[in-house]
Amino acid sequence: MLRRGNPGRPVSGILLLDKPPVLSSNAALQQVKRLYRADKAGHTGSLDPLATGLLPICLGQGTKLCGYLLESDKHYRVRAKLGERTDTADAEGKVVTRSDPTRLTRAELSSVLPRFTGTIQQRPPMFSALKYQGRRLYQLARVGQDVVRPERTLHIHELQLTDFEPGSSFELDVRCSKGTYVRTLVEDIASAVGQCAHVIALRRLESTPFYRPRMHSLNELEKAAEQGLAVLDALLLPLLAALTGWSQVKVNARHAFNLARGQAVQIADMAPSGRLAVLDEAGTLLGIGEAGAGGRLVPKRWLARISHESRR
What we know:
Helix content is 21%, strand content 32%. The chain has helices spanning 25-36, 66-69, 106-112, 137-142, 182-192, 218-227, 229-233, 253-260, 307-310; strands spanning 13-19, 41-43, 52-59, 74-82, 84-86, 95-98, 118-122, 131-132, 135-136, 152-165, 169-176, 197-207, 248-250, 265-266, 274-279, 285-291, 296-302. Strand 2 and strand 3 (52-59) form a beta hairpin. Helix 1 runs parallel beside helix 6. It starts with 12 loop residues before the first strand and ends with a helix.
């Protein structure tokens, strides 16, 4: 445990946590931060307490990349119970409406899925962390308030019915854009066939750019911590892993010096435009830059050099 007032150590990297059920994303984050004795930590998109699976956690200088990872597409597996709608759209809520799903067939349910594939409109649920006049929607919902929530545009890349238990439940595989509420998606799909449903299990499998990720459970981290911080640190991904797929540019020490001070530099043979991962000559991530006309590289988000990250 860190003593009060201890700022923690400047460890930087990305941990792919397998969040357990019941625990909130913030509670999981705090446990990871404690185990690593890290000075700073942030996650890249909340999971509901009921949900499990991939929760990327950025430590140290990695917190400067959290905003970029929030833009990620997601991949979920969700199981829904038929015949009941709850006020939270999941198993933690109270049942507010019932339906009789005994005559619903797999073919009927499958037939409506194309309506929810591609670009769609979705109204966020009241039980969400979005704000209304300075207050979280879930805070209003808990005292019985219901406010107007504008629909939002999002994209469902893939939607497959992977299991169907007649009169009982169904399972979906969902690949979607940021901002998708899978609980609402389940409700809307059920409503399209004249039924009620709510989420009983939700697991995040992937989040761009982490495909088929090797995730680490809290139990695994606890055991690693017993062996020492070096064993824990070995589970971290380098910060550059967060920018997989980005265009890159390597700079020499002189250019790195100037960029770190907010000065633009001229770089030959650079991408003509757009944001770039800026690396030193050894391939370590220095920060994020933006390419401009005539080979001009402008620093946008710069990382402090840290001994742990520099070894990776």
